[in-house]
Amino acid sequence: xxxxxxxxxxxxxxxxxxxxxxxxxxxxxxxxxxxxxxxxxxxxxxxxxxxxxxxxxxxxxxxxxxxxxxxxxxxxxxxxxxxxxxxxxxxxxxxxxxxxxxxxxxxxxxxxxxxxxxxxxxxxxxxxxxxxxxxxxxxxxxxxxxxxxxxxxxxxxxxxxxxxxxxxxxxxxxxxxxxxxxxxxxxxxxxxxxxxxxxxxxxxxxxxxxxxxxxxxxxxxxxxxxxxxxxxxxxxxxxxxxxxxxxxxxxxxxxxxxxxxxxxxxxxxxxxxxxxxxxxxxxxxxxxxxxxxxxxxxxxxxxxxxxxxxxxxxxxxxxxxxxxxxxxxxxxxxxxxxxxxxxxxxxxxxxxxxxxxxxxxxxxxxxxxxxxxxxxxxxxxxxxxxxxxxxxxxxxxxxxxxxxxxxxxxxxxxxxxxxxxxxxxxxxxxxxxxxxxxxxxxxxxxxxxxxxxxxxxxxxxxxxxxxxxxxxxxxxxxxxxxxxxxxxxxxxxxxxxxxxxxxxxxxxxxxxxxxxxxxxxxxxxxxxxx
Length: 530
Prior knowledge:
The protein has seven helices and 34 strands. It is mainly beta and about 525 residues long. The longest helix is centred in the N-terminal third of the chain and has 14 residues, at about 5-20. It is elongated.
């Protein structure tokens, strides 16, 4: 923002006085009459965080920032002047009567300044035990009324209580940006951002290109981050309402030191301070293996880290350019073996996947799964659907269109996705047509005389009873003969055992590993004398 020239003159005069008089500062609060110079600091009420001047790593530059107060290793969590360092220890930060924090160098020039959301009357700046530095009207502790806060401008670190996301009212983005190096906090080329298009999800981008994604939130966690689960250190939440979209962590024990850091090599590291060894412990990392690379296997491809090669096509799809796939260039992805026929398509259920990219998706929070399926069927461009929230039996609707992008196997994921397939690819066309009241289509093209058509349809009906998924529902041979020999009403068949709405558990196991048993086990029918 633009600062009047006469105001700058006043600042320079005050700065000159500071060279003569060193003003003591209160514990956690900074006032307009109490600036902070290099060597001074303020400390949050509980002694968790400290605000002052420091030099990261081997750097000789000085930065105004916030760091942990009680640990032996200097660990900044926020830096004000990350793009405009001081080259000596003459820096001074002041709070103006307008509610602005201004950082001055030796000559009294402003090298960094905050802004303000409203005119101030009696502003103060306070460092909270959450690590948030916020400017407010003296006596007003409502964070909603803050004039400015450091939590709105995160650097490379997400600390408990801070948000990663977007304010949908103001357009304010809360995102992480890596440092250039451990000695240089200026902006690097890696950012962790919220992708707001479609159903929002998080992604790491490098020079504006997606490096990896976290997958959409399913009510319990992000489908691409299976390691994010309930733990004894912190709780987590994803909030998506009319006002804001954000992810936030909260410590279970406030004496714990915990942070998430966007590193210059493109990773997001979760770090826990270990008091016993006086060091940061790498608790978890997001970018775990080669399958995290965005869209490694191309459209409609699946990455399975235990396979060699790691890329494969979804069932019912084949490599678009087989020659390239043989050279382990999977970027062209996969295409359908059989073209879709909008009016006759079905769906294959797949489990154990990182959900496809949601940038071009559509969602509805109130639909159930059946309504979601019907909505997808009515749109010929819809290629998959799933529940938005998998808690309590599932709710909401998420639709994908055209190609499915950036999938990988995660056996532990419990979310189902239903992928649109041509009827001939489903292998259970005997049963779907029967359930839809179209059994005559099963006999289409065969040389069945009208006289025997009823017998043929009854045989199909009995055959479907014999292949039901649950062996206990299947009739024994004596009952089969009885049903074929009379015209009594037959029970309705349930889903067949060879129905191909299967999960992807088997795909996630390499050939050297034992595969979990399938639900579609064989059964033996005992022959009995008539």
